[in-house]
Structures are given as C-alpha cells and as structure tokens.
Amino acid sequence: MSLFRTILVADDEPSIRHILTLVLTDRGHEVRAVADGDEALRELAARDYDVLLCDVRMPKKDGLSVLREALAAHPGLTAVVMSAYGSQEQALEAVAAGAFDYVQKPFKPEEIVFVLRKAEERERLVRENRRLKEASLPSAPDGHILGASAALQAVLKQVARLAPVDTTVLISGESGTGKELIARELHSRSKRAAMAFVAVNCGAIPSGLIESELFGHAKGAFTDARTAKRGLFAEADGGTLFLDEVGELPLSAQVKLLRVLQEGEIRPVGESRVEKVDVRVVAATLRDLTKLVEKGEFREDLYYRLNVVNVRMPPLRERREDVPLLARSFISRFNRELNREPPVEGLTPEAEAILTAYAWPGNVRELENAMERAVLLADGPLILPANLPDRLWAASPPGPTGPALAAGSVQQDGTDLSLKRAIRELEESYIRAALRRTKGNRTRASELLDISHRALLYKIKEYGIDPDAEAERG
C-alpha cells in the first residue's frame, strides 16, 4: 500500500496536468491538479496532501516560492520540482529549499513514478526511525542528552537552530563531554535523519590508511588493496559524517577533505575519476585548532570551512546540577545491563553530595564508569559513599560527606580523619563486595576490581578475608 495517498500537481501546462493525473490515478493515488502557484497554496491550505509535484515557472507565483511557503506551512510534505528550463544551480536551489528531488522536462511518466517510489522508501525509513526512537524512550533514555542546566540548555537551543540546515558544524569540548551525542542530535533532527550517520575517530586510524578509510580506494591502489573499497564519505552519502578528533588528520588528508567541502566530490585512492557525494560534515575536536594552524599542522582554509559554526560542549564541572540526573540514568541502565536483582534504587544523600562536589576531569564518561562500578559493588538498594571510587571522596572536604564517613571511621566527635585508615577500610569493603558478587570467584572479582589476580590474592591474605564466607553472604 502506498504511503502517498494524496498528490497535488501544480503546473501551467494542461497536457502535463492531464497526463500526470491519469498516470498517478491509475496507480491508486488521489490527484488534484492546479494551474498556478497561488491556487496551489490555497489548495494546500484547504486540505492535507502527501506530495506536491510543482513546476518551477508558473503564473502569479514561481515554483520555488511555492515550495518554500508550502514546506514552511506543511513540514511533512514531500515535494518534487519539475522544470523545462532547469540548470544544476536551479536543481540545487530546489533541493536546498527542501525538495526531495528535481525532474527535468520533458520526462516520461515512469520517471515521476520512480521518483515517488524513492520518496516513499525514504518516508518509510523516516517513520521507522521515529517509531524505534519513540519505542526506546520509556525503557532506554541512554543515548539521549540529559540535563536541565542552563549551560546544556543553551547548547540544545543552538542545536535546534542548526539541525535543519546543512551548515558545517565544529563541536569543541573536553574529552568525555558528549560531542558525538551532539553530532547525533544534529543528524536526528535534520532532514537527513533517515539516512546514515557515520562516525569516525580520525586519531584512531593510522595516517597511512586515513585517506583510504575516508575516500575509498581502487583495486590495486596499494599492496593490500585486493578489492575496491567504498570510503566513509560514500557510506554517508545523503546523511551525516562525524569526524571526531579532526585535528589529528594528516595534511594530505586535509587537502582532500577541503575539496569535499568545497566541491562535494571525492576521489578514491588510485582512481582517476571523481564521485559526487551529498554529505553533511560535523567535526569535533578537543585540541585548539587555531594553535595547530599557527604551527602549520592544520590548514587555515580547512579550519574556516569546518568552523562555520562552533558548538562548545560545557564540561561536567560547569553543569554540576546535571550530575544527579545523569547518575540516576546510569544506575537505571546498569541495573538492566548487569541484571541486578534486586536493582539499585538510587543514591544516599551523602553519595549524591560527593558526586556533585567532584570536578569530573573525565566528564560524563568518568561519571558513567564510576556508576557502573558503584552498581556492581552496592550491597543494598542505595549506593553509599563507600561504593564510589576513592578519588571522589579524596577530593571531598572533610566532614559528614568526606572520606572518613564513607569508610565508617569517623568517631562521634569527628576527630578521626585518618585518610590511610579510610582507604584501607574502603579497599577491604570493595574486595568483600566483589567476592560476594562473584560468589567467591577470585578471577572474576579481580576483573571487577580492575586489579591483577595476584594482587587480589595478596590483599585477601593481608586483610584476612575468607572468600568462601563472603560467597555465602552474597
């Protein structure tokens, strides 16, 4: 069954209106045909249409103006532009204005049918993408950008403005702040949402392979090129390519990237031909690209091409009010992933205070790691300060939420603040918790504790711990 039930044809040529009405009606569509731009807009305002087939040159209002007004009023409308006076520039202008495709007159009716079939496939992908996303929201908030802080909300407002346009965006920020999440948000809110989102860490690919990875290569282009390979730009055609750590690109690859941004074309390694690609590029960096430009390590012209708009992701220490919200989200996720029974329900006020006070140099990624560990080691329904990594409460001020209380060694008068004693007691509690969780399995416990098996055996002996007894308590 066709997704496109109703189609509006706007063309001043009676023969075009007649043939399209016959062909599309024969294929089960409900078709209405009008002769000028004003009448097309009135018809769109009067009833809902799935598709607009619009000529560029029409009396009273030209097709591109109709297209812009129609899509502004009806964002879900699929539009196809037709013209006998077309040029590549006009086609690009139509697509940039939101048209799905551009058809050159004269055309065969089958060409229109084929374009509509492609548009239907895209619409199915968009709807399926939306359905899956909505289905995942109640049970899996992870992957969504969480936070109510003013700093994060300012970023999300910026993303909302940038997503609908194809402007190149440079995302800056410290490691672990969620730069890829922002890139994915830009993609998911754009008209490219149903197409591919391809992410690549430029610093993780050897410099000798980066050009092949990005642009592809021909068979025999180099020693190990036994077959031709599509590059990541080709994989992302129609969608978004996220270049993480773009400052790590070698200068040779920078030249080719600049050409893609300027000309919209790639040349695979070992090929003489070029390929056209339609890709939105979103880049990210934690390095200062202006300093790399000054050192001659990054091309100045490429920097300006990438840095059309800069989105700065704030570090977690600038959005501390988001820490408890993120922590609870991670607890919910790790309850599922680690099959916690009974699940961890939350944090004690003391543990939450420690999380909020900590500076989080590793940002959200460090918080995620800390909460995974805490969910693993928690013995009861709530995460205690003792379940948190020692670096967190070592950074906390002495007092009711400090290290001594975390380890249970503060006396009533608050005078026992021995850091050594607190660390030893916490270390012992971690080991006991890990042995209980693993039913006395020392190898698995050493993996949970992130120490060697030999180190665990030594500490078990040092603290006089009976693994079998701990296993029975678990």
From TrEMBL:
<keyword id="KW-0597">Phosphoprotein</keyword>
<keyword id="KW-0010">Activator</keyword>
<dbReference type="InterPro" id="IPR001789">
    <property type="entry name" value="Sig_transdc_resp-reg_receiver"/>
</dbReference>
<dbReference type="GO" id="GO:0005524">
    <property type="term" value="F:ATP binding"/>
</dbReference>
<keyword id="KW-0547">Nucleotide-binding</keyword>
<keyword id="KW-0804">Transcription</keyword>
<keyword id="KW-0238">DNA-binding</keyword>
<dbReference type="GO" id="GO:0006355">
    <property type="term" value="P:regulation of DNA-templated transcription"/>
</dbReference>
<dbReference type="GO" id="GO:0000160">
    <property type="term" value="P:phosphorelay signal transduction system"/>
</dbReference>
<dbReference type="InterPro" id="IPR025943">
    <property type="entry name" value="Sigma_54_int_dom_ATP-bd_2"/>
</dbReference>
<protein>
    <submittedName>
        <fullName>Sigma-54-dependent Fis family transcriptional regulator</fullName>
    </submittedName>
</protein>
<dbReference type="InterPro" id="IPR009057">
    <property type="entry name" value="Homeodomain-like_sf"/>
</dbReference>
<feature type="modified residue" description="4-aspartylphosphate">
    <location>
        <position position="55"/>
    </location>
</feature>
<dbReference type="InterPro" id="IPR002078">
    <property type="entry name" value="Sigma_54_int"/>
</dbReference>
<dbReference type="InterPro" id="IPR025662">
    <property type="entry name" value="Sigma_54_int_dom_ATP-bd_1"/>
</dbReference>
<feature type="domain" description="Sigma-54 factor interaction">
    <location>
        <begin position="145"/>
        <end position="376"/>
    </location>
</feature>
<dbReference type="InterPro" id="IPR003593">
    <property type="entry name" value="AAA+_ATPase"/>
</dbReference>
<dbReference type="InterPro" id="IPR002197">
    <property type="entry name" value="HTH_Fis"/>
</dbReference>
<keyword id="KW-0067">ATP-binding</keyword>
<dbReference type="Pfam" id="PF00072">
    <property type="entry name" value="Response_reg"/>
</dbReference>
<dbReference type="GO" id="GO:0043565">
    <property type="term" value="F:sequence-specific DNA binding"/>
</dbReference>
<dbReference type="InterPro" id="IPR058031">
    <property type="entry name" value="AAA_lid_NorR"/>
</dbReference>
<dbReference type="Pfam" id="PF25601">
    <property type="entry name" value="AAA_lid_14"/>
</dbReference>
<dbReference type="Pfam" id="PF00158">
    <property type="entry name" value="Sigma54_activat"/>
</dbReference>
<dbReference type="InterPro" id="IPR027417">
    <property type="entry name" value="P-loop_NTPase"/>
</dbReference>
<keyword id="KW-0805">Transcription regulation</keyword>
<feature type="domain" description="Response regulatory">
    <location>
        <begin position="6"/>
        <end position="120"/>
    </location>
</feature>
<dbReference type="InterPro" id="IPR011006">
    <property type="entry name" value="CheY-like_superfamily"/>
</dbReference>
<dbReference type="Pfam" id="PF02954">
    <property type="entry name" value="HTH_8"/>
</dbReference>
<dbReference type="InterPro" id="IPR025944">
    <property type="entry name" value="Sigma_54_int_dom_CS"/>
</dbReference>
